[in-house]
Amino acid sequence: MTKKLIGLVVFLLAVFIAVPMLIAATGRTDLYYVFTSVALLSIASAGVWLTFFIGRINIGQGAYALMGGYVSAILIMYYGWSFWWTLPVAGIFCAAASILIGFPILRLRGVYFAMVTLILTEVMRLLALALPITNGAKGITSIPPPGPISLFGMTLVPDFATLQNPRIAFYYLSVMLMIACFAVLYRLVHSRIGHICMSLQQNEELASSIGVNIAALRVMAYAISSFFGGLSGAVFIGATQSIYPSSFTVTDSVNFMLNCFLGGLGYVFGPMLGTLVLYLGWNLLFSTGEFQLLIYSTAMIVLMLVLPNGLLSLGSFKRRG
Amino acid sequence: MPGPSITFTWWIRRLMEQVIANGLYLGAQYALIALGLTLIFGLMNVLNFAHGQMYVLGGFITYTVYGQLGLPFAVAVICSGITLAVIGGFMERYLFRTVIRRSHREESTMMLAAATAFFFDAVMLLVFGEKQRGVPKIVKGVFNDFGVILPYDRILVGLIAAILILGFIAFMKYTKTGRAMRALAQDRVAAQLMGVEVDRYTMIGFALGAMLAGLVGGLLVSITGVNSGIGGPISIKAFMMIMIGGAGVVSGAIAGGFILGMMESVGLTVLREYGDVTYLVIFAALMMFLSIRPNGLMGKPWG
Amino acid sequence: MSHILEVKGLTKRFGGLTAVNDVSFGVNEREILSVIGPNGAGKSTLFKLISSFLKPSAGEVTFRGERISNLAPHIAARKGVVRTFQETTIFRNMSVRDNVIVAHQLRARASLLGFFAGSAEARRDEVRFAESADEILSFLGLDAIRSELARNLPHGHLRALGIAIGLATTPTLLLLDEPFAGMNHDETMKAVAMVRKLRERGLTVLLVEHDMSAVMKISDRIVVLNFGEKIAEGTPAEIQNNQRVIEAYLGVEDEAIGL
Questions:
Q1: Is residue B3 part of a domain?
Q2: Which pTM value belongs to this model?
Q3: Which positions in chain A have a beta carbon within 8 angstroms of at least one beta carbon in chain B?
Q4: From the CA of C37, how many Å to the nearest CA of chain A?
């Protein structure tokens, strides 16, 4: 218990104090954008991880990130909503959509589910291209930065437009959301719900024979997963101030899945670590120019051969012997 | 005197004949791509994300041997097939086998497959660049009769693809290797108990699947050309085909290939003005179809 | 005397094949009833029909007068009809005790949200489940292996764990799927004793089985299927002397009947 607490404190110190201090020391404020991306992408990856946890391979998270992004952008631009209100609404919209989509497709298993979700990403991109409200390939641009949040006349969050460096603000926002999402995920997995989900992952027929409503539970997990996806997409468009049909594509969906694999499917914090390593790794390799993809993919293959159960399995190896 | 209605029916018939001819041509090549993918899936439950990249590599090899070195087309295509078979064999032996043995969850092979797909993309981009590459036509002229217009080279490639499909079916049915692989696909444990050398035939199967991808890539470079960016989209199309027909089943892959070929051919004619809408409709239809038939037309119950 | 479970005109067709054809029988409360038959007789289809894992083409299954044959399996389980699986079907990556604890889902009083938030009700549930799991494990003699990972267990223990999982749902009627398959004589004797203990616990047991000798020892009554149809029903002694049963079994294999 104390060990976990120490871990949490170290983690909080790192993200809230060490990272900003390091960035200030090196003067590379562009890194804020990188870490913001990592935080937001790891929220989406956490959703994918949850679907893995009930035994489904989800390559469709890009669809919900795109959907969440568009919901937020449309509400801000066409209906004059505040950015802050669009965040929960985007998440809930995606969760609701995923319930409708999930009921039929969650009956599929294995590669069939994986492929249908992959196609879902493509469907969403094509829809964004075709629908009038999403403005086709031109996308929605010049989205204003988030406004202030006040409670009883007290300004809790300042207007992002007035900030000297809104990047730092987005960094803190993303990291806080990431911590909240992983806290939810951690609690979910370590409560009885997690055990039931695990029973689903291992054997759906047996789970249903002990009275678990497997259809409802699958949809619930998928809805939470899509909520994460939508939320992450909505914050993303706040940070980039624009969204296009190509903002989240099949490649992103595949990457979310890879983040989970790389971190480890058996560990709640796997998707966070996986996202950090893959995203940072890809960006660090940028200087290698045309060899970037070659080195990246080779490293991935080697990692898979050495640690097929994810980076975090390194710790459990040590413990075992 | 032909009235307006007769002209219209005549026009519809012409159109349909053309659509069916195009659909058959597309279907034959698609089926061949899907066969390789479904073979690998059936044998080892691996969804090979790199299948499209293998196809592209086959295309580049034929491009080099036939288009650049000037050797006969047939030699070039055979080179594509052999090279891919060797690569496939190595991939199974040194990558997939290791990961399958050591991983807790068999889905981990998906990450490996995706990584190899990236790897192939990277290598091809470095070696062949990102330009579209084409080769001289293998046969000139256009078939134009019975209301159908189809270049001779397409007919030839379609026929070769059909022959390869029949050859593959015969191979799986009548040779010892083919029978062993079918036993393996049906029930790995039972096959092992019956004395099938599981490791050996899995490797042969992977090599064979890769070879099929290489062969189609080589054949089609003569018509559509090749560029290093189309691997991913080809993989997705191949996934769709095996889902329509049912993953891991030979007849399903063939059916899926021809159905997708027809759908594309019809869609591109009927929805021509709307461009991408064809695929939106196809994708949506596929999602609905799979919700009703979770295992495709003839798939194994557990994908 | 009215039956607790009533099977009426149950029929299942797969395409052109009729796997179960117009089968009717009843199960009395606290009875051990076995369904036997040669391979391919339709036993496992019948089993899945009764446990609501398959929908019948015709006919129905009623439990305490209520129709259960068109319900989802988890609803049938809620009503008290619970099946076990053959050995491979357990939660492989959980410990034995966790397997049984998780199977208590039906007895949860707290909602999922309660479990998520860790409400007082949920914590009471957890304590009850753990106590009940320990009771079940010691009842079935699995005390010693409770912290083993389920996937490391030998066959006999897996079968017992399957039953423990079933018991955790507090069923009224427990359906056992070939509980003696693949066991040697000693293991079978132990399993037979275990099934008898289930009845002492107040359960009604319906089992589908291939092993004739065990069935003869354990059953109050036996239903015999052949080619999807019921060819006999009665006490073990009656079945043993039934000419149609002997023919059905001799037609397939002589040693299975143990006569």
A1: no
A2: 0.86
A3: 52, 57, 104-105, 107-116, 118-120, 122-123, 126-127, 129-130, 250-251, 254, 257-258, 261-262, 265-266, 290-291, 293-294, 296-298, 300-301, 304-305, 308-309
A4: 25
